[in-house]
Amino acid sequence: MNGYIETAAPALCRLQLATELRRLRQEAGFNSSQVVRRLRWSPSKLTRLEFGDNSIVEPDDVTALCAIYGTGAETRARLAGFAMVTRTREDAWPFADYQPIMRPRIAALSGQEALAGISRSFEGQWIPGLLQTENYIRSIHEVATERFSPEEIERVISVRLARSHVLHRTDAPLKLFQVLDEPVLRRRVGSAAVTREQLLHIAEMTSLPNVRLQVIPFEAGPHTGMTGAFTVFQFPQSTGMRSIVYKESLIESWVVRRDDEVELYNTAFAELQGIALSPSKSLDMIHRAVKELDEHP
């Protein structure tokens, strides 16, 4: 899967900017023709902005659109910040007077996660973010390569727990198809108590009708997922947004947008589901892992 990929921060910021600009126009009661006439733009320019098809977004263009839509100061700052990231390609807010808790990449990722209708995710190392407990998150960041202060860790916890609301919202909750490799269940993160709490939490989450979790057992042998974790976000048809793939490593993260490349990941995910245990047998494995922790704390 060595196809065309983009660095995640500018790609996600561009996509989230597109999502918000489209929403703001609609909420302000404008159609595309009215906006381009006011700004003397070509129709294709606005279309590219509203679907994230420009590699770089000019902050001045965002400011001009915000002025038409009557956008508040904080929203303008956030959107201009997203636009600047597409230019600098750095995962940092460019304005000294606008420094929210979440970095631009995570803010944009959270936005795309909230917009998505379906998430297909494979993880081979950690419990994935949407299913993590507070103590599990804390334990991960206490040993992270990037050193975090206690205050920064608490902010990360707050942000990550807030992201999980997409699974519980009453209006079209995110449908999560999650495949884990067995080592995720066996790896002790923090104390035995922290790991036990986390395992019981994911067991509880499987009771949600929109969460389907499967585990690939050791005996399945080598598989496609061993090349790395990934998530495919599929958006509702009404958004007009194409599916994307999000991948991350220790120091970098990427987004795949090309349709043929995304389809490779969908195919790989289907293969992983095929060799994984059924949801009920996966739940049994989680409970066995908890029992083993109780027997050998």
UniProtKB/TrEMBL annotation:
SUPFAM superfamilies: lambda repressor-like DNA-binding domains (SSF47413)
InterPro entries: DUF5753 (IPR043917), Lambda_DNA-bd_dom_sf (IPR010982)
Domain DUF5753: 111-288
GO MF, one example: DNA binding
One Pfam family, short name: HTH_31
Protein name in the entry: Transcriptional regulator
Organism, scientific name: Embleya hyalina
Source taxonomy: Bacteria, Bacillati, Actinomycetota, Actinomycetes, Kitasatosporales
